[in-house]
Amino acid sequence: MPSSDDLGRRRSAVVARGVSSMIPSYVSSAAGGTLTDVDGREWVDFAAGIAVTNVGNSAPKVVAAIKQQVELFTHTCFMITPYEQYVAVCEELAALTPGDFEKRSALFNSGAEAVENAVKIARHATGRQAIVVFDHAYHGRTNLTMALTAKVMPYKQGFGPFAPEIYRVPMSYPFRDGGRSGAEAAAYAIGQIEKHVGASNVAAVLIEPVQGEGGFVVPAAGFLPALAAWSKQAGAVFIADEIQTGFCRTGSWFASEDEGVEPDLITTAKGIAGGLPLAAVTGRAEIMDAVHPGGLGGTYGGNPIACAAALASIETMRELDLAGAARHIESVARPRLEALAAKHPIVGEIRGRGAMLALELVVPGGIEPDAASTAAVAKAAHESGLLLLTCGTYGNVIRLLPPLVISDDELDRGLTLLEQAFSTL
Ligand code: PLZ
């Protein structure tokens, strides 16, 4: 087997520089909460492929379902000759997403594609154009979703012009907005929407219930319900982007459930199919079905192998109670992170829910972001065998996103490596 160094050399000759990797080690296998590289080194996985392998890598049921499907047929295109697996995934989505109303789903390949389609559907259903998004939002890298995403570097720099009719308003970010209550932060955002956009022009309000790439920002209680209520009153579609938070990650099937919010549309991807590319828009039948037949689709959307993997992933989440597992991960990790924060005043805040936890690093005593120390902690973690991601508009947030099937032993080892990484500062 070629070494990571060999592969790195081959890579630089043929792979575009714009696609970068966090570490230069090449994977040979992965299972549960551990990855092994081609040089035989093991890594504790606190990344889960960016919140994708919630059921773990190569989860047994997922592997079996993929093998079975691959022997039957690999692709027909649902728009030409349909198949049961697509319908079954939509049945699961209707049952699992919040809201006891009639729902429809459409399947796609990536999170960005799901978000794009949610915007298309909302515009079509309302006959309006304006889309409201938030500070620190991340919704993807395609042209429309770049416009919806807040951060310029690395996502948008040099890639304009961007799509029109996107309006950004302030997010509830208790650590950085002076501790505004959810109601106050919502009133402020709504005031901006009404003055700068006009309620009757808004097709959709699009928000991550807990922000992902933007820094694992958890809005103050009451913020999401107030925005959902305002959207309803304004005749706008309330869209929850649950691509990172969905499928048990935050300790329930979907993060919207935490405050009893029932979004009109929900976008999902990542955790839905245990690592295979699948994404969905799910929502109120009358909104989804506003679009004419043929108005939504794509060659691969709802590929049968990806659908089989999704059905097996969902079954695994149910059987192993992975929402409970996410809460367990929090119950183990949070006290350790709090002890870490007590020891290192550079940790300004610990936040998140379930297995979506973060530490925001600042100059001690204030809220000035410390991106350099964040990068140093991540580097030390990587050198010691812990896969750890950073995030945040200011690049100063360390995030924990382990697979939900991580063992207590792996979790303990990962947290110990994280503690050791902080002591190198
Ligand atoms: N919406 C909330 O988290 C993907 C992107 C990493 P795709 N997040 C990881 C990167 O640097 O590209 C994401 C998300 C939320 C949408 C997306 C987009 O999902 O499957 O990457 O297109």
TrEMBL record:
Belongs to the class-III pyridoxal-phosphate-dependent aminotransferase family. Signal peptide: none annotated. It comes from the Bacteria. Its EC number is 2.6.1.19, 2.6.1.22. InterPro entries: 4NH2But_aminotransferase_bac (IPR004632), Aminotrans_3 (IPR005814), Aminotrans_3_PPA_site (IPR049704), Class-III_PLP-dep_AT (IPR050103), PyrdxlP-dep_Trfase (IPR015424), PyrdxlP-dep_Trfase_major (IPR015421), PyrdxlP-dep_Trfase_small (IPR015422). Its cofactor is pyridoxal 5'-phosphate. Pathway: Amino-acid degradation; 4-aminobutanoate degradation. It comes from Paractinoplanes durhamensis. One of its GO terms (molecular function) is transaminase activity. The keyword ATP-binding does not apply. Pfam families: Aminotran_3. Keywords: Aminotransferase, Pyridoxal phosphate, Transferase. The gene is gabT. The lineage of its organism: Bacteria, Bacillati, Actinomycetota, Actinomycetes, Micromonosporales. It catalyses: 4-aminobutanoate + 2-oxoglutarate = succinate semialdehyde + L-glutamate; (S)-3-amino-2-methylpropanoate + 2-oxoglutarate = 2-methyl-3-oxopropanoate + L-glutamate. This is (S)-3-amino-2-methylpropionate transaminase.
